[in-house]
Amino acid sequence: MIEIEKYKNHDIVKNGDEYRIIWDRGKKYFGYNVTESLAEKSRKSDKDALEVMFYLEHKRWPKEGELENYNKTDVKEYIGDGFIIYEEKGKYEIRIEKDCGGAAVKPVFYPITKELKEKALKSQRDGYEVVIYAETGRWPLKDQDEVDREFLREYPEFILKNPELNKELFSEEEFNHLVALGKERKKQKEQEKEEIRENPELILWVSEKKRNMFSEEEINRLEVLAKEKIKIRKKKIRKRCGIFIAIITILIGSFYSYYKVNNRNAFEEMYNSYYNVLPLRTITNMPQIVPLTRDQTEQSIRALNYKTNTDKDKVEISLVNNLDRKSISIISSSYISEEVYLDINYRYEVDTQKLINYVSFRGRNIPSTDDKQKQRKELLEKYNISKEYLQEKSDKLLDTVLTDWKRYSNSSYSKDNMGRLTIEKDEFLK
After folding, report:
1. Are 420 and 265 a contacting pair, CB within 8 Å?
2. Which regions of 269-309 does DSSP assign to beta strands (E)?
3. For residue range 350-402, what is the model confidence (pLDDT) as tens digits?
4. Cα 231 from chain centroid?
5. CB 3.0–4.6 Å: which of 38, 181, 202, 335 could bond 34 by disulfide?
């Protein structure tokens, strides 16, 4: 049975005769396995606790005066609708999850003032205005009803926060439809929360948006439970397999053979190289890829960027592993004009074994429209981008990534032999 003892500066997690000390400092999390004697010392007083924490972090006991400001932080956290604001030493920063092309979503940070922080936390509308201002440097127009309508169509759950005001923006039929969608979305969120509570390990992999569904206190509790469950599971595996080295070798060989057989194509091979424990060479460790940070490895979407990327030309591999989607995407992004980018996308859906090849545009200077297909055609004509150019760029992207993977992993797959899959191209790449 897992017991958690809470103290002023730290917590002690006791699992049988094993102890673990955990604490936070601003955005950072610390956790160490300790002996019973260290755990007992940390219980004596706040000073003893800080000494133990310092020892665990720095691998030595503190010298005179080193505890005076140890583990102190000025970072404060404020959670809003779709954003987080950090306060440190009188400075403020807003964190927003932003679409960076294809299926990839990354957190971006913008400095803001105290006044903007206070405005963002007043209401959902104020928060939305501050987010727009932080991203563009311009306030959204107060009378742009269409912007409000588009926002509520994309996030219908927000229509429930002020239904009487939002009702004026839509016809009765559409309003009722959005209310129904909003209630369904709200129900789904509650179901997701319950699923994570029942399986706390999921908290280590879900997106920042889903983490924001919980309070900071509950996130900390779920993370402790998750890590202890994983630790117990690993311990049981070690105990079961301890003296059967020969058997383990055979099993690993069998599993590896199974892994190779079940990689039906190059994309599954790359995807499974990261999410399967057996492969020694994972796509995240390719020499062409920028190493992931610790925060990135804990997200449900992992964006792998090529080291050769520039502000105008980028190649990215995106891995998605969450409750409703498992996919790998390859994206080539090119600068076309100011705040206009052309993306060549390959998205492989693991469940359907389908590879979707399509063209898209993004950027603040892209006009808003419901007819994306027509918009793409018009933009291709506007910037004189030919079908031959798109096909050539698409082929080059696929060849580059698959060749890099083949050389690194000794894969049997290539651009000309991708394996078993269904390819679906949009009209601009056929």
Report:
1. yes
2. 301-305
3. 889 999 999 999 888 888 888 888 888 999 999 999 989 999 999 999 999 99
4. 23
5. 38
Token code pair at residue 139: 């306030």
Phi-psi region of 344 (alpha: psi -120 to 50; beta: other; left: phi over 0): beta
Task: Give the phi and the psi of residue 180 in degrees, each rounded to 5.
Answer: -60, -45
- Does the pLDDT at position 41 exceed 70? yes
* Cβ contacts of 75 within 8 Å, gap of 6 or more: 26, 27, 86, 87, 88
- ∠ at Cα 218 (216, 223), nearest 5°? 95
First to last CA, the chain: 60
Domain boundaries along the sequence of the chain: 2-73, 76-203, 250-425
Please state, in angstroms and rounded to a whole number, the distance separating the CA atoms of residues 111 and 107: 14
In terms of Cβ atoms closer than 10 Å to its own Cβ (0-12, 13-18, 19+), residue 9 is middle
Q: Which long-range contacts (C-beta less than 8 Å, at least 24 apart) are formed by 82-89?
A: 82/127, 82/131, 82/209, 82/212, 83/120, 83/127, 83/130, 83/131, 84/208, 84/212, 85/112, 85/117, 85/120, 85/121, 86/27, 87/117, 88/26
- Quick one: pLDDT at residue 151? 82
User: How far does Cα 153 stand from its chain's mean position?
Assistant: 24
Nearest Cα neighbor of 208 from 200, 198, 219 is 219
Give me the pLDDT at residue 305, please.
93
Q: Angle at CA 14, nearest 5°, toward 9 and 17?
A: 135
Count of H helices and E strands in the chain? Answer: 14, 14
Mean pLDDT check: name the lowest of 19-28, 82-91, 97-106. 97-106
